[in-house]
Amino acid sequence: MRYVSTRGTAPELTFEEAMLTGLARDGGLYVPAEVPVMAQAEIAALAGLSYEEVAFRVMRPFIGDTFTDDEFGALIEAAYAGFGHAARAPLKQLQPNHYLLELFHGPTLAFKDFAMQLIGQLFQAALKRRGDRVTIVGATSGDTGSAAMEAFRGLDNVSVFILFPHGRVSDVQRRQMTTVSEANAHALALTGDFDDCQARVKDMFNDFDFRDRVRLAGVNSINWARVLAQVVYYFTAAVSLGAPHRKVSFCVPTGNFGDIFAGHIAKRMGLPIEQLIVATNQNDILHRALSSGDYVTHGVTPSISPSMDIQVSSNFERALFDAYGRDGAAVAQLMDELKSGGGFHISQGALQGLRETFASGRASEEETSAMIQRAQAEMGELLCPHSAVGVHVAQDFQGITPLVTLATAHPAKFPDAVEAATGIRPALPPRMADLFDREERVTRVENDLSAIEALIEEGVFA
Ligand SMILES: Cc1ncc(COP(=O)(O)O)c(C=O)c1O
Ligand SMILES: N[C@@H](CCOP(=O)(O)O)C(=O)O
Fold first, then answer.
1. What is the count of structural domains for the chain?
2. What is the pLDDT of residue 98?
3. Which of 43, 53, 262, 329 has the most CB atoms at less than 10 Å from its CB?
4. Is the pLDDT of residue 462 over 90?
5. Domain membership flag for residue 245
């Protein structure tokens, strides 16, 4: 299996190389040269298997000879052993024909754990074999950072630096990052928003001298392995609702477009997905782009679903690559326009292609809050604000096809928003009960590439 860049000029890589590389050297994102297709019978045979067994069968064709079957199976088992639910990603009925896929039973209580726990295992195994070490730099609006620090803390062949927007993550999210005590894990609070954090991470990848000196690696969803791990729960959910004999739709709270892009890959692999619905908060660039064809950034407005406060949606580039017939030059031009002018126009043909797979909707702050309240009162479900965005948007898409909304985080990560809507303050699980007693360790940084790079080098070579 080979991986190619969405901008068409970086060298093709193996799975292992793409995983350890992160951003392609032409600024693009790696995607498989071809998406393997599963036969109907193979999909049907997933019914009744454990999450780990499904994960093995779905991901195996993508990893080439990076790991033997035994190694890969053992790494998957280790990745999900710490999850707090036997099903890993349980499905719950919310309304007639509308289901909630609970993705918050991992160690940091958000869907990011599904990929991060696995790539923590994959990185360790690959680095050990190569006798190598890397510096992981990540950007977070709250959940990726805590999941990455949890997955990589204490490893002696990895240093991890996470940039988060100062004052724009929940207290629980911040503390999940700043109370990690292991010396290889560093939380950096940047003056700016998530887009600034993500832009600086991409700048570091495009500074080849720095990149090579520190042996930079990425664990944001620019890393293909992140997306791949998230494909699995589309299969477990759809198969338990009758796929491949029955179509299923998914409504996905969306920011950086990684989670829903994983759904797109599942569909290309042969899973009968009718609709993939992009659910945005008031930072609705993706909903506007899919509605009008104009992808135009307006600046981020902080919301009660802070993890989705994103305007430059990294993985949309992967969807554009497919919509433009895998024309890397066309994608590179759109990304140049985005960088220099703050937006681009999607051609009619590409827009039509995107709309064949993706529908969209948005939830305002009031609608999100009202949905949290209504879900608790009428459905007995305490939703996190991101999941509430999804459930709100899903109300317009219910029909004869079963619809699954992804519940992307535990409500206790966002207790203020949940309490304001319902009067109920959700409690953290007992293993995190002392989170607010732990000592915080955080470095404040300005939005300045050279200063951030200097700080990281100091940390790596200290
Ligand atoms: C809780 C939560 N929900 C939804 C999202 C959006 O997911 P994605 O960025 O993959 O679109 C995020 C951030 O990624 C998140 O942390
Ligand atoms: N919402 C994310 C933003 C980063 O997304 P990623 O999937 O590219 O890592 C977060 O919680 O950090």
1. 1
2. 98
3. 262
4. no
5. yes
